[in-house]
Amino acid sequence: MNITFGALYFIIAILTILFLFFKRRFSYWKNRGVPYIEPTIPHGNLKDVGKSKHFVEAMDEIYYACKKKSPFAGSYFSISPVAVITDLDLIKTVLIRDFHFFRDRSNYCNEEDDPLSGTLFFVQGERWTTLRKKLSPAFTSGKMKFMYPTLLNVCDRLVEHLSEVIQVENDIEVKDVLGRYTTDVIGECAFGIECNSLRNPKAEFRKFGAKVFNAPKYSKLVKEFLGQCPEIGRFFRMKLFSDDVIEFFLGTITETIEFREKNNVHRNDFIDLLIQMKNDKNPDAPHLTMLEIVAQVFGFFLAAFETSSSAMSFSLYELAVNPDLQEKARQEVNEVLNKHNGEMTYDTIMDMNYVGLVMTESIRKYPVLMAVTRKAVEDYKVPGTDKIIEKGTGVVIPIYSIHHDPEIYPNPDVFDPERFRQEEVGRRHPMAFLGFGDGPRNCIGMRFGVMQSRLGLAKLLKNFRVKLSPKMSVPLKLDPNALVLSSLGGLYLVLEKI
């Protein structure tokens, strides 16, 4: 009996301590006079996210409840206090003017035990500054033109593959097919390897890339903890990626580099540019180590793995829902092709202005990365207020909420490419569109993503008419479990050969 009462007292004591801990932790924003939504133990403001609620719904609740009260709102990702920026002027200040206060992302990185985590996206501090300077020359428009013939070759294979598939079944899950297209593009441009995932959906590159997104090593809760307490993760030598993912990409990239150097093989692709940096004899030139190259090639692969395929998929979905816009885009493709003697060159696709508007409006309505994250590297006094964002506090910019704010974009659920005509863009705040982020830490591969997506969309419009599948709903239902914005149950469209 004494043991039973002793155990009961112990449990009550533990629960009391936990309750007091959460109560104190969840008083953080209240004590600082920052507007917030009451959190729930133990998930904070992310209760049911990934189950019955999508992440963007949780952000919308905070954004609309607090945007009129303060330039930023208090929120809790699990037990971590996070500042959600709701004011566009403050967003510009965080991303650009006072960037040095918010240089880092709230991501975990452990290069020593997990070399793949040393990508430009994850690294922090001076390490990021150095890497960004080294890599920027590899992403100029001139370098993109060098890679364009490779993209065109893969895109021709995409059209050929779809032309064969629709003879058997024209109701296509386009997200999967376009995901395999971008896998093959990145495989050839970043690795110099024909992945052939268009023909073989079970190709290794597709399998391991999908594993990173669909079967992550840690839960969202653990990743949030690692982002807030990276020293603990590094102390226990926790890796961001699974051992088989690390082994596959580390081995494949290293073998490719060694083969090229040994056999003096040169190609106009991303890995070739990085090898040149590694071997440049000029002491003033940006140099990369072998492991830095491995990490950046892997990061380039991941960055383009889901983003471009999603942007194209959502564009096709909206053009299927709006056939008049589809015909307008197709007409432009044909007119610009005639202007360029029927050749789909880099300059041809960049001359397709309306196709570009379609892509941008698609990214506005369906931003693949739903939020931009930063972390205060020192205490920051928010301009025009007496509030401090303390050192180490996570910062979130809710892209989806901003892109769907009716005060910024009237009738935000309507797909309207004309929103991005130059004169319309000039009337809006420069931070009203954040599809690629902004400031020094924006998406370094933006030019490549735009090139890849425009080419794919132009080729598909030229060769196929797209209609809505009976399997699809209007509006789309979002998958609450997806790491990037995705349609629940896939994205099916009917393709008819032109």
UniProtKB/TrEMBL annotation:
Its cofactor is heme. It comes from the Eukaryota. One of its GO terms (cellular component) is endoplasmic reticulum membrane. Keywords: Endoplasmic reticulum, Heme, Iron, Membrane, Metal-binding, Microsome, Monooxygenase, Oxidoreductase, Transmembrane, Transmembrane helix. The keyword Cell cycle does not apply. The keyword Oxidoreductase applies. The chain crosses the membrane at residues 6-22. It is a peripheral membrane protein. SUPFAM superfamilies: Cytochrome P450 (SSF48264). CDD domains: CYP6-like (cd11056). One of its GO terms (molecular function) is monooxygenase activity. Its main location: endoplasmic reticulum. Belongs to the cytochrome P450 family. This is Cytochrome P450. It comes from Hermetia illucens (Black soldier fly). The lineage of its organism: Eukaryota, Metazoa, Ecdysozoa, Arthropoda, Hexapoda.
